[in-house]
Specification:
Helix content is 57%, strand content 15%. It has 232 residues and is an alpha+beta fold. It has one domain: Butyryl-CoA Dehydrogenase, subunit A, domain 3, CATH 1.20.140. A five-stranded antiparallel β-sheet has the order 4-3-2-1-5. The longest helix is centred in the middle third of the chain and has 30 residues. The radius of gyration is 25 Å and the shape is elongated. One of its GO terms (cellular component) is membrane. Its main location: membrane.
């Protein structure tokens, strides 16, 4: 492939990787990871609410990695309550998983920026043979993509398996019990998926530029080695 086309491909990959880092940095600071509704089970059972009456006992909840907000509905109107994971909810949430999600988000941003820098360096500079060259580009893209997948797996398990929304909804609730009525992942969570797909696309762009995958042996060397072995 001509050098000019390679530069264009590397520039596209660098811009995508940089946009991925910016998107993740913005996503971390929002509370748009999970949105849902919570049912005041105790209040609904007291009045035996059914049908449209049940709507008076359904509140809202949304949260991110650091803070969130819930609207408590127990038949007397909505009462908003804002909370933060650190240090308020640290005792009731799976702290190790939550901290791991934040850590992998940080690693994803760092390696996405590093990858963007190396893509631009390979586009406008003279790439080295090792980490500045195609092997390094594959490495940064692979690590970033893996971090994105781990973030989605860990956060999904925290929300679904450990019932994070219910734990938050019942935080500091003595007399009332809340149950998750509906739950869905919001925009910031899907940004992680987009970033993982972008890094996978970058890997294909590197291959499209004409570079072999790392650790792959060219056919010429194999045939040459075979011929030498036959000589002996």
């Amino acid at each position: 492939m001509p050098a000019q086309q390679k530069k264009i491909i590397f520039c596209i990959a660098g811009v995508l990787s940089f946009a991925c880092a910016l998107g993740m940095a913005a996503a971390i600071g929002t509370q748009l990871w999970v949105k849902g509704t919570i049912l005041c089970k105790t209040g609904a059972l007291l009045v035996n609410a059914t049908g449209q009456e049940l709507e008076k006992f359904i509140g809202k909840i949304q949260y991110g990695l650091f803070y969130g907000e819930r609207v408590r509905q127990c038949g007397l109107g909505g009462r908003p309550f804002q909370f933060s994971f650190f240090p308020d909810l640290l005792k009731i949430i799976p702290a190790s998983i939550h901290v791991s999600v934040i850590l992998f988000c940080t690693v994803l941003i760092i390696f996405a920026l590093v990858g963007a820098g190396f893509f631009m360096f390979n586009a406008f500079g003279s790439p080295y043979e090792t980490l500045h060259g195609p092997v390094g580009l594959y490495l940064w893209s692979f690590i970033t993509c893996c971090c994105g997948c781990l973030i989605m797996i860990l956060f999904s398990s925290e929300v679904r398996i450990h019932h994070l929304s219910e734990k938050i909804a019942n935080f500091k609730e003595g007399n009332f019990t809340f149950k998750t009525h509906s739950e869905q992942f919001a925009n910031s969570f899907w940004i992680v998926l987009v970033c993982s797909l972008v890094q996978f696309l970058n890997t294909l762009l590197i291959r499209f530029a004409g570079f072999e995958f790392p650790f792959s042996k060219p056919k010429d060397s194999e045939t040459t080695t075979g011929a030498v072995d036959l000589m002996y």
